[in-house]
Amino acid sequence: MNTIPFHQLPLENMPVLIQAGLCLHGARAVESHCQRGLWSLHAYHYSGTLHVTGTTHAFQPGWVSLIPPGVDAEWHFPPHAPHYYAHFKASRSVAGTPVLLLIDLVTRSGRFCELLDEMVACFPEEPLRASVRLWDLLLQLAAPVSETRESARFHPHLQIALSLIRNNPSEKLLVAAMARKMGVSSNHLTQIFQRQFGCGVRQYIRKERINRACDLLRQTSLQVKSIAIECGFGDLQYFNKVIRKATGASPREYRQRSRAAHPCG
């Protein structure tokens, strides 16, 4: 596995947002881009690879990339590949803040997805406000990652299983295959989940994917179909049924209800 490089990003002054939006890629399996004079931020809702400066790096849903100006980048897409993007100017500075090329936000807390969606939504009419949102997002990305107390107390086999579940939200995960990856039996892995969460592995995966789907419905403008695919529900009708059972409303109704209860400030 290639080591993810750092870049020096100037953050002492507010960046200027030039473009922002939500894109759906996948019509072409490979695309290359180079932004002259602009940084590029991408927040991924799919699994793919990014080739930069001679090395290739894999990423998962919930990851973010930060690419400096003038750097050639090549993406390899699955057939359905939605992501947020932002192109921005950063102040010129001798010193900068070290920021990784790729950052796993699955293990982070905070309102990152919500801020990103707010930035995209307000950019056309309020570009200054959108730049403020972007600055906040970049400062979050530059913050160091620390282990949570909760993950530190988990059984090692459980930590591996949780990492597999969180990094593969759209894949069909079999308990037997997960157990083989860590050299234990399916029964052993199921017993660990039962002791920690009071449910089996399959039930936990289902709950996690429903919770993630609800988070994306509340915090992003992704299409319902995209959210269903990302969260491992290939059948849209089945996804509607699952969300209705969990929330008492269809995905669209749940999104509308949530935004009415918590309007963006």
Q: Please, could you describe this protein's structure?
A:
This protein has helices at 112-122, 127-142, 149-152, 156-167, 175-181, 186-197, 201-219, 224-230, 236-247, 251-261; strands at 6-9, 16-25, 30-33, 39-44, 48-52, 55-59, 63-67, 73-76, 81-89, 97-100, 102-104. Helix 1 (112-122) packs antiparallel against helix 2 (127-142). The protein has 265 residues and is an alpha+beta fold. 42% of the residues lie in helices and 22% in strands. The strands form 3 sheets. It has a 5-stranded antiparallel β-sheet, covered by helices on one side. The protein has 2 domains: 6-142, Regulatory protein AraC (Jelly Rolls, Sandwich), CATH 2.60.120; 149-261, Orthogonal Bundle (Arc Repressor Mutant, subunit A), CATH 1.10.10.
Q: Provide the CATH superfamily of the largest domain.
A: Regulatory protein AraC
Note the overall shape.
globular
Average pLDDT confidence is 86
State the distance separating the first and last CA atoms. Answer: 42 Å
